[in-house]
Every structure is written in structure tokens, then in C-alpha cells.
């Protein structure tokens, strides 16, 4: 651990990370969201800061402490998260999208609390902005990392996201696997690079995994500059 800390391999680098879920309002007291705990993103932010990076963390609502030496921006909805992310993207070297952004939001947001009426209720939803996709379109010098939460056909789905969103790598986890995914302190992931290289990591603490991920990103950035 001390060894890792000593190595300030991200000194001078600016890192942008999104984390946690988003909340999409239905009325003043209700929202649509998901089970994301934010642990992976916060852990990456903490690792990046301790490796010497200038870190900005854009987070949806979670129950975690802000890591030290991290610039924190709290948001609620996908639209707010996109706004804040775009404000910072031009100025960063590495952008990592770990947030579990809600894919849909209610089309109408009621200004007053909805009252219950019939036995069934249908709510019309519309797609939210895809933040990673938007960054992929705007990408210049940045190294762009996406995550992929999958329950099946991990490799195929992860590679689709890699190319569709113009990311430089995708870190995929099988959310149904024990010790992986939402809410856990450990994760089991495979990293897919654009070169076709595929790096499976064994089950490990999200803290340790964060350092291993930056090791890979650093390798990629150095190769690009060679
Ligand atoms: N993502 C994003 N904005 C969204 C949805 C996803 O930035 N509106 C990002 C996530 O932060 C992650 C990657 O895209 O880095 C993949 O997210 P995921 O939910 O696995 O994929 P989707 O493209 O949303 O596809 P689906 O949920 O249908 O599998
Ligand atoms: Ca999604």
C-alpha cells in the first residue's frame, strides 16, 4: 500500500469522475433511481488523488464521505450531471464514467404530489442524455473510460459500448456475480481496450482495483505519447 502511495504516477494529471446513481423526479416527493452505492467511483477518486492527480468528482446522491483532496460537485439528475461534466471535460486528461445514470426520466414532472387513484398507474418515460456518449463525441486529447453493468453476454455488450460511445476502454462487471457490482466493497471486472486487449481482474476490494485500473490507464497514456 505504501509503495503505491509513494508512486505519484498521476502527478500533474487532471481526472474527472462521475459516480453514484441519478434521481429523476416524478413529483416533489418521488423519483426514479437505482441501487448504485457510488463506491467504485469514490474509490477511484480517492486512488487518483493519492497518486497525485487533480480530481473532480461529480456525484449523484450517495451515503459516502468525500475523499480528501477531491473537488466534489453534487448533482441529482442525469441532465445536471451532464451539465457539470461538460463544464470540466475540456480541461481534463482522464475522464471516468462510473455513474449509474438513470436511462429514463418521467416526461411530466408534477408540481404537486400525485394522489393515488386507480388500481394501476402508468408513467410515461423518456430517454435521458447519455453522458459517456456525449463525451465520446467531443473527445480530443482526453483518455475516456466507461463502465458497463451487465447481467449477460458481458464481452459482447461491453465491446458494443466501447465503440458506440467512442471510449478508450470499458470496464465491465457482471452485476449478478457474487461480490460484484452494486453496493459491494469488492468487484469482479474485465477491462476491454480499443486495441482488443482484454484484462480480467480477479475478485478484489474496490480500493485495490482502483489502483490496478490507474496502472492500466497510465500504461495506455504513456504508449499514446510514445
Ligand atoms: N452512461 C452515461 N449516461 C447514461 C447512461 C450510461 O454516461 N445516460 C455511462 C455509464 O456511466 C457507463 C456507461 O455509460 O460508463 C455504460 O452504462 P450502462 O448503463 O452499462 O450502459 P447503457 O449504455 O446505459 O446501456 P444499457 O443500460 O441498456 O445496458
Ligand atoms: Ca444504463
From TrEMBL:
GO terms for cellular component: phosphopantothenoylcysteine decarboxylase complex. Its EC number is 4.1.1.36, 6.3.2.5. It comes from the Bacteria. GO terms for molecular function: FMN binding; metal ion binding; phosphopantothenate--cysteine ligase activity; phosphopantothenoylcysteine decarboxylase activity. Residues 15-226 are annotated as: Phosphopantothenate--cysteine ligase. Keywords: Decarboxylase, Flavoprotein, FMN, Ligase, Lyase, Magnesium, Metal-binding, Multifunctional enzyme. Binds 1 FMN per subunit. One of its GO terms (biological process) is coenzyme A biosynthetic process. Pathway: Cofactor biosynthesis; coenzyme A biosynthesis; CoA from (R)-pantothenate: step 2/5; Cofactor biosynthesis; coenzyme A biosynthesis; CoA from (R)-pantothenate: step 3/5. Residues 10-219 form the DNA/pantothenate metabolism flavoprotein C-terminal domain. Its cofactor is Mg(2+); FMN. It catalyses: (R)-4'-phosphopantothenate + L-cysteine + CTP = N-[(R)-4-phosphopantothenoyl]-L-cysteine + CMP + diphosphate + H(+); N-[(R)-4-phosphopantothenoyl]-L-cysteine + H(+) = (R)-4'-phosphopantetheine + CO2. CTP binds at residues 103, 113, 147, 161, 165. In the C-terminal section; belongs to the PPC synthetase family. Catalyzes two sequential steps in the biosynthesis of coenzyme A. In the first step cysteine is conjugated to 4'-phosphopantothenate to form 4-phosphopantothenoylcysteine. In the second step the latter compound is decarboxylated to form 4'-phosphopantotheine. Catalyzes two steps in the biosynthesis of coenzyme A. In the first step cysteine is conjugated to 4'-phosphopantothenate to form 4-phosphopantothenoylcysteine, in the latter compound is decarboxylated to form 4'-phosphopantotheine. This is Coenzyme A biosynthesis bifunctional protein CoaBC. The gene is coaBC. The chain holds residues 178 to 403 of 406 of the full protein.
Amino acid at each position: 500500500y505504501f509503495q503505491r502511495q509513494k508512486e505519484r504516477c498521476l502527478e500533474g494529471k487532471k481526472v474527472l469522475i462521475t459516480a453514484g446513481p441519478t434521481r429523476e423526479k416524478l413529483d416533489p416527493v418521488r423519483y426514479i433511481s437505482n441501487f448504485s452505492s457510488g463506491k467504485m467511483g469514490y474509490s477511484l477518486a480517492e486512488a487518483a488523488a493519492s497518486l497525485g492527480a487533480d480530481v473532480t468528482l461529480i456525484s449523484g446522491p450517495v451515503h459516502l464521505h468525500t475523499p480528501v483532496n477531491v473537488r466534489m460537485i453534487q448533482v441529482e439528475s442525469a441532465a445536471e450531471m451532464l451539465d457539470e461534466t461538460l463544464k470540466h471535460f475540456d480541461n481534463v486528461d482522464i475522464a471516468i464514467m462510473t455513474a449509474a445514470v438513470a436511462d429514463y426520466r418521467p416526461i411530466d414532472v408534477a408540481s404537486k404530489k400525485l394522489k393515488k387513484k386507480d388500481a394501476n398507474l402508468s408513467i410515461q418515460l423518456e430517454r435521458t442524455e447519455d453522458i459517456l456518449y456525449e463525451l465520446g463525441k467531443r473527445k480530443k486529447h482526453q483518455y475516456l473510460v466507461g463502465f458497463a453493468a451487465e447481467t449477460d453476454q458481458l464481452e459482447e455488450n461491453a465491446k458494443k459500448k466501447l465503440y458506440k460511445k467512442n471510449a478508450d476502454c470499458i470496464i465491465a462487471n457482471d452485476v449478478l456475480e457474487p461480490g460484484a457490482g452494486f453496493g459491494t466493497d469488492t468487484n469482479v471486472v474485465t477491462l476491454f481496450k480499443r486495441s482488443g486487449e482484454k484484462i480480467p481482474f480477479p475478485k478484489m476490494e474496490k480500493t485495490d482495483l482502483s489502483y490496478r485500473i490507474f496502472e492500466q490507464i497510465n500504461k495506455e497514456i504513456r504508449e499514446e505519447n510514445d
